[in-house]
Design brief:
Radius of gyration: 22 Å
Strand content: under 5%
Largest sheet: 2 strands, antiparallel
Order of helices and strands: HEHHHHHHHHHEHHHHHHHHHHH
Low-confidence stretches: 12-92
Shape: globular
Number of strands: 2
Number of helices: 21
Length: 442
């Protein structure tokens, strides 16, 4: 209980003033024959990407962007202090024109152009391969999933990413299956309490990006619409503040309706039960991360155990916000290419790489003499450990397998069921004792 309360306090400090979860009841877990979303889109799984639902359709229209003049931007940004940003600061200066990702300033702003590793001819060749693959999507997902995974790991070409993400999540299938549903959800009044909470949070999401500079910009309106529509679509979950940066990130890549259906897939499949009351799934995955860390980075694991650093104290923001507040933009896009193909185990791998690299050196561990010092290091890892090349090189070279993930997941499920049974027994004993006491008084 103490660790759980501490984690909630951590989340309170990280995600702006508090974590809001509006729900009528928690979603039930998948039946035992189904698998955890960490297994991703593997050919034999029924979870994360649901390859059987993917169908090919026309390329989506570009995401709407907005711009602002440099003078008015500087005046507006002076009052913004709740930026949803990465822990990897690059520069805080404001520019009169956006960078290549649409940022005018803040910690995500980068003046440096992307280092090109491919020639123009290689880029065009990759795009042609992806165009062919998306045109025969069902065939590839059913018969040659390994090729899809291989190409996602290499990085989805920027020109194809919008289409690919919609196919990987199954969002395109849902959009066609429930044609007109998004507008119908927007026409519903929604829960007044949830509406108020969304309005409080919408201006905090990436306020230095060209889409979210002002309340009257298209991005602000689209973000409100996506979050409100989801709260109507799935009232059992409603709205959680950690969902806002995920929705904002998707809107930077996709038109609003496309972003909504990808958002539905992420909340209901990839991060299933992450946003329900009690955060039970997050607690279980925290235990799983701890066990995997023991295998991949024994020294870092021992250090965290020595200083009683529970995983919930540092991984809550990483997982709940789907790394959108943790990684530099180029790294984030590459990680999401893999996440949407392989599932949440990609976030486990990213977390394991960050922890292992940050706490791996003996010199660093010796300087972290307690819980607070260790958390400070984990929350602000060196920039070099978050760079695209470093993360992508190491996450697929960890000494863990899918079997390791499945085994640890089963152990956490068993421990959770055991703890729940013990709680029920204690509650029953308490109830019986209270009844007997009332009987004696009568």
């Amino acid at each position: 209980m103490i660790i759980y309360l501490a984690a909630l306090l951590t989340l309170h400090l990280i995600i702006q003033p508090s974590l809001h979860i509006s729900a009528e009841a928690a979603l039930s877990r998948q039946i035992e024959s189904q698998t955890h979303p960490l297994q991703g889109a593997t050919p034999n799984s029924t979870d994360c990407t649901v390859r059987d639902l993917h169908n090919m359709a026309a390329m989506s229209s570009p995401t709407s962007n907005s711009s602002a003049s440099g003078t008015s931007l500087l005046n507006r940004q002076s009052s913004k202090n709740a930026d949803t940003v990465s822990v990897c600061s690059t520069t805080s200066a404001f520019s009169t024109c956006p960078d290549r990702h649409g940022f005018y300033g803040g910690n995500q702003f980068s003046e440096k152009p992307k280092k090109e590793t491919l020639t123009r001819e290689q880029t065009i060749a990759r795009e042609k391969k992806w165009i062919h693959m998306t045109a025969h999507w069902s065939k590839y997902m059913n018969q040659n999933y390994k090729k899809v995974r291989e190409r996602c790991r290499k990085g989805i070409p920027e020109a194809i990413r919008q289409k690919a993400w919609l196919l990987l999540t199954g969002g395109e299938h849902m959009m066609h299956q429930f044609k007109g549903e998004y507008q119908r959800l927007l026409d519903q009044p929604g829960n007044p309490h949830i509406i108020d909470e969304i309005r409080k949070d919408q201006h905090r999401q990436f306020p230095h990006h060209e889409m979210f500079l002002d309340d009257d910009k298209p991005g602000q309106k689209e973000l409100f619409n996506v979050l409100k529509a989801y709260s109507v679509y799935n009232p059992n979950v409603g709205y959680c503040q950690a969902q806002a940066p995920i929705a904002a990130f998707l809107l930077m890549q996709l038109p609003s309706e496309n972003a909504f259906w990808c958002f539905v897939a992420i909340c209901d499949k990839y991060l299933e039960n992450y946003f329900t009351p009690g955060l039970e799934m997050l607690q279980r995955d925290a235990g799983m991360l701890n066990r995997l860390l023991k295998k991949t980075s024994p020294a870092a694991y021992r250090h965290l155990q020595k200083h009683n650093v529970d995983p919930l104290l540092y991984m809550t923001d990483w997982f709940l916000c789907a790394m959108t507040r943790t990684l530099p933009w180029d790294t984030l896009l590459r990680v999401w290419d893999c996440f949407l193909c392989e599932g949440i185990r990609i976030f486990f791998k990213v977390a394991l790489v960050i922890i292992g690299a940050t706490l791996g050196p003996q010199k660093v561990r010796s300087q972290c003499n307690g819980l607070c010092e260790t958390l400070a290091v984990l929350r602000s890892p060196p920039k070099k450990f978050l760079e695209e090349d470093f993360i992508m090189h190491h996450i697929f070279r960890l000494n863990i397998t899918i079997d390791d993930f499945n085994r640890e997941h089963k152990k956490q499920e068993m421990l959770h069921r055991k703890a729940k049974l013990e709680q029920q027994k204690l509650a029953q004993q308490h109830g019986n004792g209270a009844s007997a006491s009332n009987g004696r008084r009568a």
